[in-house]
Amino acid sequence: xxxxxxxxxxxxxxxxxxxxxxxxxxxxxxxxxxxxxxxxxxxxxxxxxxxxxxxxxxxxxxxxxxxxxxxxxxxxxxxxxxxxxxxxxxxxxxxxxxxxxxxxxxxxxxxxxxxxxxxxxxxxxxxxxxxxxxxxxxxxxxxxxxxxxxxxxxxxxxxxxxxxxxxxxxxxxxxxxxxxxxxxxxxxxxxxxxxxxxxxxxxxxxxxxxxxxxxxxxxxxxxxxxxxxxxxxxxxxxxxxxxxxxxxxxxxxxxxxxxxxxxxxxxxxxxxxxxxxxxxxxxxxxxxxxxxxxxxxxxxxxxxxxxxxxxxxxxxxxxxxxxxxxxxxxxxxxxxxxxxxxxxxxxxxxxxxxxxxxxxxxxxxxxxxxxxxxxxxxxxxxxxxxxxxxxxxxxxxxxxxxxxxxxxxxxxxxxxxxxxxxxxxxxxxxxxxxxxxxxxxxxxxxxxxxxxxx
Length: 454
What we know:
By secondary structure, this protein is α+β, with helices and mostly antiparallel strands.
């Protein structure tokens, strides 16, 4: 199909997406000389009346309003051999692709959630319910997590209802009698992100979309969909019966207010959820502002990164320091079996206390080093904030360990006192490296983004 020309002007270039009821190609509009995205039916289903109807429904729904958070429809072609929708071409990756390789910070989750809630509110106010919101149908343009645009795609399962006023606080909207409506009792959508009422075959309304958005944001904040089971049947049972784990159980650094917002989205009874996406948008915006406000109040000048080096290099140096500590601890445990094993000529009592001091520092320090190796090595989100919180613990153990050169006093003499300040300075070097790695990159950590230093 690549290279074919549709409707006399759209030359298909490359397949960029495929779903149950359509295939999406990047294409060139020869008439206007621009790149577009063309959605068409799979070749073996081209003549399916039901899929043709749904494609037309999608075109009507996506073109019924204009919003920065929804891909714009340029054209719809309904010809015997060509049933296609022409969309604007959106650069970027889907949220599903980003979730596979990226852990979102609280600020990133809020920024994306605000855009999605605003787009859904615009659709709901025009009587359009998406019914299939999921990470695969959300496109992130380059930089979306900070300042780029988020786009909702695929209105193929959208349902038309009476428009919802921007001040509506809920209540069931009545079915508009459009051919796009789906009879109650029909299971339609993606099971993993369906609301309880969808699974039970009840008529859906805008609050089903609010549920799906809350589930998407929960997955962004924790890295998992809390309801997914081993089989579709177990997933359905979880959605209907189980409550999601508290957000802070999955993400200890997430604000309690974010947990409250998401759990309100995920209530089983739609009457207990947000009654409009606009209301959800307000709460997300307020939380985002609350996270930024302390920075404005306490930092009149821009915080400068103390050491500007590539993020990957900063992380590598940090990991090497942790490995170096583990090597030193290992040497200590191997060469010094107990009090009195080292001879300084300062008295047995002093040697005993020095050994106990270093043994404790090495024992507890080993646990700290292994934790930091895993956190930074696996690039755990919010590492900067966690390191800031435990910095004084690290400083205490490293300060104690800086006495280790005294073990070599008998062999090296006074020169060992040159090594003591070097070891004492290492924790501050680690602090600088973490700051560089997790601040200069734009903050893969909400700790520094709220004005806290590490």
